[in-house]
Design a protein that fits this description.
By secondary structure, the chain is mainly α. The chain has a domain of 89 residues. 58% of the residues lie in helices and 0% in strands. The protein has five helices and no strands. Helix 2 packs across helix 4. The relative contact order is 0.13.
Length: 129
């Protein structure tokens, strides 16, 4: 199942600069308040992505935490999907670049391997002229 990315590359790049805010909000249930300009930009991105007209008051710690948890959860889902797609693309390139082995005759491919004969050591060539 392929998830549609929530954020475009520019939005994702901006949000990734503030991943530390999302990490504490989503995983530790607390957050440092971002500066108002950053918070407003995050809200604009979120409203554009969701089609809502959400307003987050920068004086309301609970409102900011709730918002950071919501956008942070979407950010981490988007990040995981991007990483999955990148890994699949790398695996496909790696698989495409593997050389195709030459096919062996059937007798050779199915023959029981024989043990190699021991090779006796050579005499030293010091005494030879």
């Amino acid at each position: 199942m392929t998830m549609e990315l929530k954020f475009d590359d520019e939005q994702f790049a901006y949000l990734s600069q503030h991943e530390d805010r999302f990490k504490t909000a989503v995983f530790a249930d607390w957050a440092r308040k971002p500066i108002p300009q950053v918070l407003n930009t995050m809200v604009q991105i979120w409203n554009k992505v969701t089609g809502r007209d959400e307003k987050v008051r920068d004086a309301c710690a609970h409102c900011i935490l709730r918002f950071l948890k919501e956008i942070g959860t979407a950010y981490y889902q988007d990040k995981a999907e991007r990483e999955r797609r990148e890994a699949n693309a790398r695996a496909k390139v790696k698989a495409d670049s593997k050389p195709i082995e030459e096919s062996k005759p059937i007798e050779q491919a199915t023959a029981t391997p024989q043990p190699k004969k021991a090779v006796k050591g050579r005499k030293s060539g010091k005494n030879k002229k």
